[in-house]
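Good morning,

Both structures are done.
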Amino acid sequence: MPDPTAQDPHTLIFVRSGILWFTVQNANRVGRLDPKTGEIKLLTPPTPKSRPYGMAVNSKGAVFFVQFGTNRVGSVDPATLEIREYPLPDPASRPRRIAITSDDVVWYTDFSRGYLGRLDPSTGAVTEWPSPSGPKSEPYGISAIDDVIWYSESGSSPNTVVRFDPKSAKFQSWAIPGGGNIVRNTSVTRDGSFVLANSLVNAVTLVKISK
């Protein structure tokens, strides 16, 4: 790292150009690594101690990240490296992970309040829904699959798999058979299955989604 205070990189994500973006939550930084040259650029969000956490990239290559230390979502313009912040309505919001649908709408899990949130970056408008297991459900890992939102509630016991259909605004949820044990992150396989990292046990959960 060019700055010795930027320790413990957190979430990492490659974009199509091969550039690697990452967050350094405890140092309040967002990083950009060019693997071809080894050059690292560290960016600082305007809000101090904002704890940049989960990341996702939209169809235009813009990088979005949630700020777990405050009630904000941030974005980075890949051309200018300028950071923009989008405030969420509730000061108690603490977004932790993020997903983006094909319309470039941003979805986030509000860990502290037990909500699923929707941010339209073109207008700044935010819509929120209470997660099925309530205010202490601690929604965490999240992915978008065919523009349907899938995430896990890490505060419920056992952890859950939650499906939210933006078209109908309806939730479905299922208990993870092995308990889950805090699903901190999720991903999607090439065939569109939902993968969950059960971080406190030696297990991965695979959800096969019917077509």
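Second structure follows.
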Amino acid sequence: MASLTFLGAAGTVTGSKHLLDLGTHRVLVDCGLFQGLKELRMRNWEPFPFDAARIDAVVLTHAHLDHCGYLPRLVAQGFRGRIFCTPGTRDLCTIVLPDSAHLQEEEARHANKHGYSRHQPSLPLYTQADASRALSQLQPVGYERPVPVLPGVEVEFVNAGHLLGSAYARIHAGKRTLLFGGDLGRYSRPVLPDPLPIDHADILLLESTYGNRVHEPDDNGKRLASIVNRAVTRGGKLIIPSFAVGRVEEVIYWLRRLEEEKRIPVLPVYIDSPMAASALEFYKQRMQELDPDLNAGVRDVCAFCTARMTVVETAEQSKALTASRVPAIVIAASGMATGGRVLHHLAAALPDGTNTVLFVGYQAAGTRGRALCDGIRQVKMLGQLVPVMATVEQLDSMSAHADVDEIMRWLSGFSKAPAMTYLVHGEPAAASALADKIRADRSWPVHIARHLEQVELPLE
């Protein structure tokens, strides 16, 4: 009897890892970092619940850190197999994994220098050498091209519309089809294509990030224009913490469009994230994988730029931008304000009521972004308590995760119910609400996955 074990993204939205044990072979689907609450982040340091050397292959749905960021640790612990993914995912991993390793090493160095680690010496979760080895094991596979992963096991990637290269992983094992949903994209959004429909699967793993919420309706950029214009009236900066991979592109798209339609003034726009700049280049190189409407509208102009856009290259340039009081839009990582250059911009901007901070993505529990959106009046960052006097806004419409209505729309493409739908990648309230919705509307069997839970899978 085969089994499936939920090693992450069960009861939470991070740390995606699902172990498919076929008896003679083992496949790990996704290998992500836990993020957010300290109790979740500490799971990254726990011993593996399996022997990494006995994993035969990894199947990767996309290049966000909560899905791929633990790969270097897996490799460091002895995994030597191939990591199957799409070419777009391979491209983005070449920037996110080395960057994550660099941050791990910097954090360890900082802890050793200031002596605040309980471990002596403090060690990184993984190194840049580990990240390089993980990258060497990536095996890119095009969309909708079934390939053998192991004897009797075949994987096919289907475009999920969540991120460049993102996919559902359709795994054929025995006589059964298992669909690992990864993260589900959205409909009728710019930049990325709609998630492709799926006709059937015997077993379905479905994300539930927004299982209890409906995104703000599409207002053709009206609210973003209003936020920008109010920021201009105040005479301060607009700081946009953004995921470097997968969100900056849409922010730039909308700013450019609003400029062209003269709905906002042309402002200096700074991309203060080397990783985001690199990701933008990959998006430009893979325009054929993006939304067809985007391709049709930008044949002779820059797809991802504004009239006065500057990419901040060096740390010195970033410090100068932080110190500047000239009104501007600053887009910097990370999207949940958990680290990176955006912390310096926030520390300088938050105490000043003329400034505005705009969050444009999901804010996980335990992150500074969630605390700021919830109205906290002072926040700890860079070793100090920073008062919050700036205006804090959140724009939900740019989320790359399907909301409950979009999830139900996608499920309507199935010709029959899966034998079981397992809900993953969601906080408890969201997963519970989505489970109730699926049972009420579709009468499907649904189970909310629990961390470290193992379920049997009849594959014959």
